[in-house]
Amino acid sequence: MTIVNLINVLYKMKFLSLLGLCGLIVFICKYGINIMLLLRMAEKTNGDKLALVEDEETITYRQLLSQSEKLSFIFKERYKLQRGQKVAFLCKNHGSLVKSIFAAAQLGPDIYLLNSDMSQIQFDQLVKDQDFDFLVYDVESSSLIEKSLYRKERLLSKHDYLPAVNTLLQTEVEGNFKLPRSSTSKIMLLTGGTTGKSKEVAYKPSLFHFLNPFLAVLTRLKLLNTKTAYIATPIYHGYGIAILFSYLALGKKVVISKGFDAKKACHLISKHRIEVVTVVPLMIQKMLNHNVEDLRSLVCIASGGAKLNPKLVDEVFSKLGDVLYNLYGTSEAGLNIIATPQDLKYSAATIGKKIKGVRLNIMDHDKQKVAVGTVGQFCINNKWSMRNRTSTWIEAGDLGFQDKNGYYFLCGRTDELVVSAGVNVYPIEVEHVLIKHPQIEEVAVVGIEDEDFGQRLKAFVLTRKNEDLTQAALLEWIRPRVARFQVPKEIVFVDHMPYTPLGKLDKKQLKTEVRKEWIKI
Q: What is the value of pTM for the model shown?
């Protein structure tokens, strides 16, 4: 089946024709194998088609390739960018970022995609640890950079008159400039949120290694027959840049915007008749709450980066039909599991089934494989995992199990496991029950210290607007629905939930608030 899918993809990309194969060989011989190769092949057959739509400009494939090549030449001549160096990007989603990534990739340096919402402490640590040679950044990050020890070459992504990507593209260069033949070194993603020390995750772009996840996304999400995608998730996140490269390689139209706002996102989807959108669950909920009618053109909502609660799954199906997909992966191991709408109808709580090429073992504390239906830690092995790992197997840090039909389910992170009177309790299971309450909008469950049981559960609950719900009433509602050891010791009603810039529920912040309470006691 993979061979058939591959042939279909290559046919769609015009690679199977004699002209297409000859063009591919010529480009490889002249420029090397790098990310720019995807753009060159797409431009060859889609030159006048729209490639990128962003807040301030709309450009075709021919324009995107031309500007990326020109920028690459400027990077080489003016900033001496070359293989063996490190170039960092501190940018939101916009055209200058996309052009700069392609431009840098042609020259062969390692490409670092930084969280544009990072703290001063984290940026200072990165500068110290990585010693970047070149930095492309948004003007909003100027203060962050000025306060740091970074003193090497840097360039604004956009500006009206200062040196920036957009102003450099307006300068004249010699007509027949030449670019070096090079292979892209590594794309570096940084994990760890916006505070604290980041973990470095290296990927080596390879058509061979990434063939299985590429085909899985295209076929399971049925992207081959779509024309327009909106990347609402940050490009600096592995999920965002993977979809960007995949869609541009197919010669499709990609819509991006600087930052996420539900009203603006709904407008973009309606205006451009978007068929595919990449989101985290929080984005879906906000768009549904704003205007469902604007979302009618969607045939694929690709959700990833955070858990998808069953209540939201049911809401999407009831309002938009069978358009929701759940993608499970990690920064270290890449994409590994996909749940289609049919899978989510089997169980709204499943993360789906493995994609081809993934080996996934579920292990106990003694590093032994557990039986079907038993909870353990996900350990993953595939060809597209981070290149700077020390072991062939990656411990994902996620707890879960596989049922008898081959579907996988998450039970939370390893550090979220609560042991109450010797019994393992998984907060996510209680969250899945509480979220079904008709008056509850959002819920988070964490572990707290308990003198009698060692640990118990504490639930943070956000109710729907104008709903009056008490702790006593909610405890009465949940008791017959969960085991005795799963009943929360405390329930706290909140007026908002903390989220990270990526849209993940920030349980670390909730736990910090819990620890503050312990100190007060």
A: 0.86
